[in-house]
Amino acid sequence: MKVKRDRSNVKRISNNEIALELGLELKQSRRYTLNKEQLKGFQELTHYTARKSSELDNADFSTTTHYWIKEKGLSRFVKVNQEETALNINDITTFISKLNITTKNNLKAVKSNKTIRIILTDIHVGMQPNENHYSLYNYTWDLHELEKRRKQIIQSVVDLNQEFEEIHVIDLGDFTDGFNAETTRGGHKLPQNLTNREQFEVAFEFKASLLLELQELFKVKVKSYNAVNCNHSADLDYIVNSSLKTYVEKLNSNIKVTNIESFIGHYKHYNHTFAILHGKDEKHLKFGLKPKLDDKGKTLLEDYVRQNDLNGCITIEKGDSHVQLIDECTSKVFNYNNYLAFSPPSGWVQHNFGSSKSGFNLMIINSENNDKQLITKYF
After folding, report:
1. What tens digit of pLDDT does each residue of 120-141 get?
2. Which of 7, 76, 111, 326 has its CA 20 to 30 A from that of 282?
3. What angle do CA 100, 203, 238 make, to 5 degrees?
């Protein structure tokens, strides 16, 4: 005779906020065995229908993502269903018109034959690395952390205590995390803590402040090169960087912004030629270029060099892989530099590849030779 076990106290709880409110330790299976008090609380949290706090009668839920109803014998978590905040030209125009960023727009005579390049990639503004407190390493990626790291970029250049002829700021793509919480091609959902509009505003202010502060502080020409053809956020990155170009170039004539819409773009400075790309595009590549270059990737890049008549000391610079790997051996035509991500690893990266370092790079070049001094800064 089989004895049927009473499993009425075993519940599947998909909403992690409810599980946490009940004092449960989050489980991947989302199945929990509840005691009597937790069962009672679960019923209250999930079967609330009629009673409503009078305090909510005049509440504005247009900007609210969730709320609690707490009355005698009742504690109810409510998540407001909001459509993704749209982003249109009026939003952009209104936001930019309200910015209060000033600049002195000065140049000084500099006796230097050196240029410093600040290399950033995979900033992922708006990424949520610890969705529902369920990621492995409890990373935080928010406005406070982003601003702290922006200041570290500037301080790292100041600490070099050198004069430079120019400053180049390189963004190798995935500047924002993605439009409508999806990758560029769609189908890959992304946990995010900012809406489309918020991603635009935060990313715009981050880079505008960075460029303007560098120009004002060092009083030299600042050039920004942005790879906007990327797998996470191509369209949104383009909107941010094209708006940025119009804004900062008008505000400060000593700043120039170049946005690269093709998969690979390049520019030459002194005897150095830099080909910059994200590594995986918005449309065609099934798999991105690998950090350890294989024959297929080597052929693609060497063909690009030949087709575009690149010369001098050639360096291919790539993001996407979130790892730092400097390869000066695989190709006799170019050096192949993969750079670490500026942001912490996402939940997906954590579960598939573990924790990883984040940071940025400084590269000093000069007009006299092909030497490059690469300095990696870790957070």
Report:
1. 999 999 999 888 777 787 889 9
2. 326
3. 115
The tens digit of pLDDT for each residue in 289-304 reads 999 999 999 999 999 9
Strand spans (E) along 231-292: 255-260, 265-269, 272-277
Sign of CA dihedral 320, 325, 330, 333: positive
Reference 93, options 200, 199, 203; nearest CA is 200
Residues in the chain, total: 379
Q: How far apart are CA 374 and CA 353, in angstroms?
A: 26
Cα–Cα distance between 91 and 269 in angstroms, integer? 37
What the chain holds in terms of domains, given with CATH numbers, is 10-79 (no CATH), 89-378 (3.60.21.10)
Alpha-carbon gap, residue 135 to 344, rounded angstroms? 12
Which residue, among 164, 271, 158, has the nearest Cα to 221 in the 3D structure?
Answer: 164
Report the alpha-carbon distance of residue 100 to residue 54 in Å, rounded: 40
CA-CA distances (angstroms) from residue 221 to 93, 152, 259?
A: 27, 20, 17
The dihedral formed by the CA atoms of 167, 264, 247 and 125, expressed in degrees to the nearest 10: -90
Tokens describing residue 258: 């170049």
Q: Which residues, listed in sequence order, are joined to residue 315 by a DSSP beta bridge?
A: 274, 335
pTM: 0.77
Predicted pLDDT of residue 75: 44
Nearest to 304 by CA among 269, 270, 275: 275
Residues 6+ positions from 25 with CB-CB distance below 8 Å: none
Residue 351: CB atoms within 10 Å: 13
In three-state secondary structure terms, 21 is: helix
Q: Is 257 left (phi over 0), alpha (psi -120 to 50) or beta?
A: beta
For residue range 256-291, list pLDDT tens digits in order: 999 999 999 999 999 999 999 999 998 888 889 999
Place of tokens 């005779």: 1
Tokens coding 97: 């018109």
**DSSP states along 310-342:** --SEEEEEE-SS---EEESSS-SS-EEEE---S
For the record, the structure tokens of 189 come out as: 């959902």
Which of 19-23, 206-210, 293-297 has the least mean pLDDT? Answer: 19-23
Residue 240 reports pLDDT greater than 90: yes
The letter for the amino acid at 146 is: L
Report how far residue 318's alpha carbon sits from residue 338's, in angstroms, rounded to the nearest whole number.
5
